Amino acid sequence: MSIKADELNQRIGARVRLERDRLGWSLTELAARSGVSRAMVHKVERGDCSPTATLLARLSGAFGLSMSALIARAEVRAGRLLRQADQPVWIDPQSGYVRRHVSPASDMPLELVHVELPPGAVVAMPAAAYVARRQLIWALAGTLVFLEGDIRHVLEAGDCLELGPPADCVFRNETATPCTYAVAVLKQG
Q1: Which element (helix H / strand E) includes 147?
Q2: Quick one: CA dihedral 139, 56, 119, 165, positive or negative?
Q3: If you placed Cys at 38, which of 31, 83, 109, 170 could pair as Cys (CB 3.0 to 4.6 Å)?
């Protein structure tokens, strides 16, 4: 059975701490590398807050990880099959977007993520979230507006976009119905 949001936030916080310790970084160093205040990093590590997607993207980018990798490491399940009921689901407290990590834990350089973006939702991701990885966004239902730096892409159901070089990005649902899309992340190097 999938874990509850509060428990996942606790596990994400513990994972952030493990990644920071693994690299030998202080709270101050992670704060400087991620652009997240030291106090907020401390709150995330203690599980005292529900971090937003933008905040998690900044932290994971500082570690050289995708946000989905950070979330998956927070709830690692062994095996080649990851049933839907066991897939880590994270809800952004700011936008209400629902992110499901679909791919099983493995040494493959590919991660699959399923996202539902509520009507009117806007989620900003810093360029650091896209360094050392290539990504495809595949619109499954609804209309996704994706701002890639200064470029505006409008994806309708069935459209697939390969992201360009790392840039600050924004996911937007400018409609009155949910938008669903998949993200395929290929880690490089």
Answers
A1: strand 143-148
A2: negative
A3: 31
Q: Say if residues 128 and 113 touch (Cβ distance below 8 Å).
A: no
Buried/exposed code over 123-158 (b: 16+ C-beta within 10 A; e: otherwise): bbbbebbbeebebebbbbebbbbbbbeeeeeebeee
Give the residue among 63, 124, 73 at the shortest CA–CA distance from 97: 124
Per residue in 42-87, pLDDT (tens digit) is: 999 998 888 888 899 899 889 988 777 787 777 756 678 888 988 8
How does DSSP classify residue 93? T
Tell me the two tokens of residue 50: 């529900």
Rounded CA separation 89/93 (Å)? 13
179: nearest Cα among 131, 150, 144, 149 = 144
pTM above 0.70, yes or no: yes
Pairing of strands 160-162, 169-172: unpaired
Angstrom distance (rounded) from CA 3 to CA 89: 8
pLDDT score of 36: 94
Q: In which region does residue 175 sit, left (phi positive, over 0), alpha (psi from -120 to 50) or beta (all else)?
A: beta
